[in-house]
Amino acid sequence: MARTLSVVLAWLTEWWDDVELWLAQLWYPFQITVVLAVLLPACWAVAWLIDRVVDRASARLTPVRDVEPPLGGRYDEPPATTPRGGAVAPEARP
């Protein structure tokens, strides 16, 4: 197991050095473009994940029972319609 881990880490280190060298040799505007194309979506995804985790944790840990559910809860659902096509009155929010 330790041998496999050291082989994987050696490969990862070598790969990272190759990518870093390739990026450093690019023309500066291309460097910025590549970094932004990778970092912007990655940072957005991490921020979204942190937001969801904090939302869920704070909703579970709050001492108040009648709080609004976190994003993605029942208040985010589209309004229901009646058989005739009219909208159902929204529930009273606390």
Using brief descriptors, characterize the structure shown.
membrane; mainly alpha; single chain; 2 helices; transmembrane; transmembrane helix; 0% strand
Structure, explained:
The longest helix is centred in the middle third of the chain and has 34 residues, at 28-61. The radius of gyration is 24 Å and the shape is elongated. 0% of the residues are buried. The model has no long low-confidence stretch (mean pLDDT 81). The chain has a domain at 28-64. It has 2 helices and no strands. It is mainly alpha-helical and 94 residues long. It has helices at residues 2-24, 28-61.
Given as residue ranges, the uncertain stretches (5+ residues, pLDDT < 50) are none
Helix content: 55-70%
Large-scale geometry: elongated
Measure the end-to-end span: 56 Å
| SSE ordering | HH
The total strand number stands at 0
Region (Disordered): 65-94
Keywords: Membrane, Transmembrane, Transmembrane helix
Transmembrane segments: 26-50
Helix/strand layout:
Blueprint: H1 2-24, H2 28-61
Quick overview:
With 94 residues, this protein is an all-alpha fold. It has helices at 2-24, 28-61.
